[in-house]
Design goal:
The complex is a heterodimer. By secondary structure, chain A is α/β, with parallel strands linked by helices. Helix content of chain A is 45%, strand content 19%. Helices cover 71% and strands 2% of the residues of chain B. In chain B, helix 3 packs antiparallel against helix 4. Classes of the chains: A alpha/beta, B mainly alpha.
Chain lengths: 349, 394
């Protein structure tokens, strides 16, 4: 063997070794992984739900953040390499994921479903927390702002940029209500082709003034930096920003709300532990502690109905549900794909 | 094989492996994903084979055997993963199909034979041939439908190809936009980079070294950092607007972020070094003798430039322009951060289909078309741009 061959062989071995360093390691034992949308909600959940579960069960838990993209979850289920065990999802995604077999059927022998409000129990998920979006603006920049959706659309009275969540869900409902449709009729109107046209026509009116956001942190950043004048943002995050000193005005008349669910990913190697954890984090005890620091609206009956907690957390979505529009899960399961395609095409033009 | 050739194969082996693993396999995989169509047959093997002998006539439904096959497929299917992908696949072709197929699955164990009667009673859409024709049409192992859709075309139930409804059309405009943005970015890089590189090539080595640093430091900085820097600079209350307002040049802040302008400025900034570096290396090696000869023959400066210097430096311009163009065609993060939804390029939708709507066929088709269009553009550009200068140099 001359030097050249030996050198080449050594180089090949080195290349092979370094290549294995980049390959995913499959068999590693890992923490039970719970995934949510991040932000202050998840910070409070980490302290008051996840860590106490870790302490009481002895199961190591770590949490991760995503923006609601389901592709990664579908991908890991199809590849049989599931690294997310519990995931927080919006209602239509829960139902569709359940139909598609990417979420496991929950073990209601482990999870006590009687403690959850009936409308937030599904074969593949239990209600985690209520959430909502409202219009908010920076009072330091604008003494007055839109108090309802018609005014949110009124670019003469309130000139400036608006910010909405990217995608048809929320956007189309808001457009119809701004066009004068009563909240009780929104989904009836939106179920007709004319209604969809009407919503997009309404959106055309302010299209050039809209900045679209994707993650919940963005509207806060846009409004805080003055980039956008009036934005829809998640109520919890707005309230937190106000608690940290921001001088924002938020208007509950513009509320649209729903419930996010905890689901267990099908094929998780830690399904059993995941069920235990779902049981724990939907329990009244830990949730009560969480409401001390975060105005979440848990779907746990005891917490949900507790007048003391409601009084202490005026920002809980459920305190304002009478003024808001409840996002219709069935409608978005049936029409989500088409409206997503239409929205994508519309927004790109 | 003698020792020497074995040796040379061993030496190139790492490169070959890299090319294979990093280039041929992923691109091949993408190409196949763009035309692969396994979803329907995987979920409905019996139904699709029962449909083979049935002909769609625009109205009548298939015979009872087909209905039985569907019920058997549903009852013997898995926990739903295949069925779910099948419904997504059908819904992509015909909106509303997902809910029809899901309804069928929900009632499958509650109805009795003959299913040709009981299934349409429960789900009326199964009473005519359309949904069956849709299943039959999409049961080939390969399909051109993703590629067609990526050009805003769709296949009707009778098999003819037509344009999609205008409120769903998006991709023709998207490709146009991607190429217009890329061409403008390339042109801007040429006009900004050429004089810069020329000036650098006239400096002393020491001075050129310092100027080169100014080119290289941004080049070494991550794209994300540079794009975010532009985001901050271009904000409504950012430094540029503050300066403009402060000097009284404008009365109210300019809208720069989330516009096409921001996309151009950030992309040119990111890509400019890719143009300057090759053109500078050509100019540096370019002997000034020919220019001097032209001058001594009485050519005025502009003529020296146009007839001598420019043709000599053309190979560098072509190389730099091709690099800039190819890179900008695939840009994703910069337009995504500083542009609006109207300023996004093809890569944004590749990511959208891969991450958001879980449609890898569509994502792959867009990638394949982007690759083809880019290759074609460069081939045409090569034909149009004569290889000026090389003759003189030789």
């Amino acid at each position: 063997m001359n030097f050249g061959t030996r050198f080449t062989a050594a180089a090949l071995v080195a290349a092979g070794l370094s290549a294995t360093a980049f390959l995913p390691t499959v068999a590693d034992a890992r923490d039970l992984t719970i995934v949510g949308f991040g932000g202050g909600y998840q910070d409070s959940a980490r302290v008051h739900l996840f860590e106490p579960f870790e302490a009481s069960s002895g199961i190591a838990v770590s949490d991760d953040v995503y923006n609601g993209e389901m592709a990664k979850v579908y991908g890991m289920v199809e590849a049989g390499d599931v690294t997310y065990d519990i995931i927080m999802v919006e209602a239509p995604e829960l139902v569709r994921g359940c139909e598609d077999g990417v979420f496991a059927k929950l073990d209601y022998d482990v999870i006590d479903k009687t403690k959850i409000i009936e409308t937030a129990v599904h074969e593949c998920g239990v209600g985690g927390a209520g959430w909502g979006v409202v219009v908010f603006y920076d009072k330091a920049r604008h003494a007055e702002g839109p108090t309802n959706l018609q005014e949110f659309w009124d670019t003469e009275k309130f000139p400036g940029k608006r910010s909405l969540r990217t995608g048809p869900k929320i956007t189309l409902e808001v457009a119809l209500m701004a066009d004068g449709v009563a909240s009780a009729d929104v989904y009836d109107v939106l179920s007709t082709p004319e209604g969809v046209d009407r919503a997009f026509a309404k959106l055309d009116e302010i299209k050039d003034d809209i900045v679209w956001w994707k993650s919940g942190a963005q509207p806060l950043q846009f409004v805080g930096s003055g980039e956008v004048d009036y934005a829809f943002g998640y109520t919890g995050r707005i309230i937190r920003a106000m608690g940290e000193g921001a001088d924002y005005d938020m208007n509950w008349n513009t509320l649209l709300y729903s419930v996010d669910y905890w689901a267990v990913v099908e094929g998780s190697p830690m399904t059993e532990q995941a069920m235990q954890m779902v049981e724990y984090i939907t329990d009244a005890g830990p949730l009560r502690n969480q409401t001390n620091v975060w105005p979440s609206s848990p779907a746990n009956k005891e917490i949900n109905m507790d007048p003391e907690i409601q009084a202490k957390n005026p920002g809980m979505v459920l305190n304002h549900s009478d003024k808001g529009l409840f996002l219709n899960t069935e409608f978005w399961i049936a029409n989500g794909d088409d409206l997503e395609a239409r929205f994508t095409s519309w927004a790109a033009q | 094989m003698n020792g020497k050739s074995k040796m040379s194969w061993l030496l190139v082996a790492p490169l070959l492996i890299l090319v294979c693993v990093g280039f041929i396999i992923p691109i091949g995989y993408t190409l196949i994903k763009a035309i692969k169509n396994p979803e329907i047959t995987a979920a409905l093997p019996r139904t699709t084979s029962a449909l083979e002998n049935w002909e769609w006539d625009g109205k009548s439904p298939p015979p009872e055997a087909v209905y039985e096959a569907l019920i058997a497929d549903i009852e013997q299917g898995d926990r739903g993963r295949n069925y779910g992908s099948m419904t997504r696949r059908l819904n992509f072709e015909q909106s509303g199909s997902r809910s029809i197929m899901m309804k069928a699955r929900r009632i499958a164990d509650k109805i009795e034979a003959p299913y040709a009667v009981s299934l349409p009673e429960a789900v009326p859409e199964f009473g005519d041939g359309d949904i069956w024709q849709l299943i039959k049409q999409n049961s080939n192992p390969y399909t051109a439908r993703y590629l067609l859709r990526a050009m805003d075309l769709t296949v009707t139930l009778d098999g003819s190809i037509e344009r999609v409804a205008s409120d769903q059309a998006i991709f023709v405009d998207l490709f146009k936009r991607t190429f217009v943005i890329s061409i403008w970015v390339t042109v801007l890089c040429v006009f900004l980079g050429y004089p810069t590189a020329f000036w650098m090539s006239t400096l002393s080595d020491r001075a050129a070294g310092y100027v080169m640093l100014l080119v290289l430091i941004p080049f070494w900085t991550s794209i994300l950092v540079r794009t975010t820097a532009w985001f901050i600079l271009l904000q409504r209350e950012g430094p540029i607007n503050a300066a403009l307002l402060g000097t009284g040049l404008v009365d109210e802040p300019l809208r720069m972020i989330f516009t096409r302008f921001a996309v151009y400025i950030a992309m040119v900034h990111v890509l400019l070094p890719f143009f300057i570096l090759p053109i500078y290396s050509v100019m540096k090696r370019l002997g000034m003798e020919y220019v001097k000869a032209a001058a001594s023959l009485g050519a005025p400066p502009w003529r020296q430039f146009v007839t001598v210097y420019l043709p000599l430096s053309m190979p560098g311009v072509a190389a730099g322009a091709v690099i800039v163009f190819m890179l900008s065609v695939g840009f994703y993060i910069t337009p995504a951060l500083v542009g609006g939804l109207q300023d996004q390029m093809v890569s944004y939708y590749i990511a959208f289909y891969a991450n958001q709507t879980i449609n890898l066929g569509m994502a792959s088709s867009l990638a394949v078309l982007l690759l083809l269009f880019t290759a074609a553009t460069i081939a045409i550009a090569k034909k149009l741009l004569p290889e000026t200068g090389s003759g003189i140099r030789a």
